[in-house]
Structure prediction request, 366 residues.
Amino acid sequence: MNSKERVLTALRRSGTPDRVPLQFDLCRKLTDDFGKKYNIPIHYTTSYFEDVTYRISANELRVAMGSDCVVVGGSLPRGYSHPVPQEGRIINEFGMLMEQGPLYMQTIEAPLRNATTVQDVSNHPFPDPYAKGRFDDAKKYAEMYKKNYFIIGDLELTIFEMSWHLVGLEKFMIDMAVGEAYIEALLDKVKEFSIGIGKQLVELGVDGVWAGDDFGAQNGMLISPKMWRNLFKPRHAEVFQELKSVNPNVMIMYHTDGAVAPILEDLVEIGVDVFNPVQPNVPGHEPDALKSRLGDKLSFWGAIDQQYLLPQGTPEEIETNVAEKIRVLGAGGGYMCSPAHIVQSDVSMENVEAFIAAVKKHGVYK
Prediction:
């Protein structure tokens, strides 16, 4: 099988692939270091939300290192550059004042931090998802790799995360809890932006759309399942329906960090095909339990610990963990092995290579 066939077979649960497919994302430092090692020039595609840049960049390196997937997404419009109010800070397309932190660009001033009314949301200018050039790189890489690799279209910060970044997390969560009127108007405005981005990705021919919002913490959900079902479930269902209206066969791949076991059946109900990142070591994400509970309805992508194992484990410990995750989640197909997060700079190059080698060694179906 080539990579595309391998991923499609595994994630559609349409048979047993030759081996468990492999996917990973690297932070900038590891990307640059591996680019030097492989002598591959790195091309960075700046996302419309800066922290997603490393998801949609360095595809030449990604496939050279063994990934079965290529990831593309919406970028900045052609010819656009961020306003730079002072060194180290930018104002992004959504009006967020952002500053480079230790790992990511951080929002330090939210443009809707004083919002109280629906009119405040209506008056705030949103980027145009159809701006010229937003998909120049996505078109290039989708066309380059579509025959042999599974093409993922990135649509993270689909509704919840983009909304709270526009308002500020504390204010957003309080206002959501007390039912401020502007909240639903904001959710709808973000939803429409995501639909515009997502439908264009599907039109480009991506095999799956990687939507996502982090609703989980280490010990449970950030909001109650009831609130999620009231505010977010119907809106995500609408986004997924719109994507499927362009191509009924596109796979819906949903990312949500943390312990989100209470809503997994709901995600299946609204059309999610693949659950990512299957964060390990949180309540309700035990591999045996997930596979037995949902393995006939949902495929799994991720599950390799990024908090301790990859940064601090030995290559032997990584191999043992990868083999066990493949044994359980990969039984009969339905699994793509990946770290549960972008691999950060606290992970050595040796451990990245140990992870990749372990998937290739233990992922082969007998």
About this structure: The first helix runs from residue 3 to 11. The domain at 3-362 is CATH 3.20.20.210 (TIM Barrel). The beta strands are 69-73, 89-91, 97-100, 105-109, 150-156, 208-212, 251-255, 274-276, 299-304, 335-339.
